[in-house]
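Check out a protein:
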Amino acid sequence: MKHLFDYLACAVLLLSGALTGAMPAHAAEQPTPCTEDAMIVFDASGSMSGNLDPFSTVVQLRIDEVRKALRRVLPRAQLNRKIGLVTYGAGAYNQCNVQLELRPTPQAAAPIMRIVDALRPAGKTPLTQAIEQAAEVLDYRNQPGVIVVLTDGQETCDGHPCELGKRLGAEAPNLTVNVIGFRLQSDSWLGAQSYLDAKCLAEETGGTYLNVHGEDDLVKAFEQTLGCPMMSMWEPGTVR
């Protein structure tokens, strides 16, 4: 019997040592929450009121696809960081409208959705100005931050997105600008320059450019650019 107890005690010690030795490596792999504030730069220009499929008789507005995607993503994203909102293109027809709607705020899902649901796309695309405003709100010269840009078209208010990306990349190494191009490459009438400008803007700030085509693609893109590794631990929610 004594030999049996000695054997069991030895086995327990060996198992305990193995688990203890494995814990630091395992702990190092655990995702950590993101703490940088984020700003969503939301496209509400006139093209966002267009039909998702211009050749279909079924009406599916582009902006509605983005609304549905944000409604799925924001409840998880707000768990990890404060989020704010800048919109561009809403309001007066054919104008270069930019509006700071919400500074980075905890539990921002509901207020952001109330604002986004009320937007009426009508204006031009002052993409550069909108991103500049979001960067200023994040105090980009002094604080780390993340900007997530949603755009379905090219800059139409004399801005230069790629040049802005280069300037922000030089002035603010801790600011990341991610760009989600919504059906951008599929619209051949926009030309290659729109895609290149958006991609350059992201790359110059260490961000990611993603081209998407529908709601599920949008959800994945927002999760990748706005969220954190920890988001995979949470089940999708809804905003009421």
